[in-house]
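I wish you would study the pair of lines that follows with an eye to the fold:

===
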Amino acid sequence: MAAIPLNGAKAFIFDAYGTLFDLINPVAARAARLGSKAGPLSELWRRKQLEYSWLRSLMEEYSDFWTLTGEALDYAMDSLDIHDPALRADLMELYLSIPTYEEVPEVLSNLKARGLKTGILSNGSPLMLTSAVNCAGLTQNLDFVLSVDEIKVFKPSPRVYNMAAERLRLVPNEIAFFSSNAWDISGAASFGFQAVWCNRNNAPRERLPGLPMAEISNLRDALTLLEG
């Protein structure tokens, strides 16, 4: 997909997990204790985390993302016959200090230097997001951090994207939204954001409504969309 310049975007909003923060790291940091189960645990944990968020939204049975993340980890560990409470606590704690992808600080700093508003719109709970942002040293380059905990429904509900638009007092097409999750991009594009898919893993496109206006391989490429 060819990248086209962003048209009049006044704010750059980013998804957190998998977009700014490296989801592979919490399990990779403990790979020695998991052996051959490290990869399967990482994949299953993330998959169940997302499934639980979508299903809870449909069921109107909200639980914050920290609780949901723990429930997904419990399922993944049980499925792989891993019974280690200390490891479980360690993996959850690592989520609070999860590192960013290497280009993230530079990109956010560059956007701020251009006078653009920057922020996060995430399923993460306030506790998780505040801790991760502080540990990564991103605070000075973010104008806001929005959690779905305020409205108690998860992305890709249109209510989530509307919360951001209302908070910024912008119409949807004045907001550029970046996510590595194709389903999140579909939701944001359907709502009317200028949605840019950060396709870090060269995944195929989803067969969902709401198309990205551009596809990039990492967030550094986002800066090229400001040219012209």
About this structure: The longest strand covers residues 117-122. Residues 91 and 107 are 28 Å apart (CA to CA). Strands lie at 11-14, 117-122, 144-147, 175-179, 194-198, 214-216.
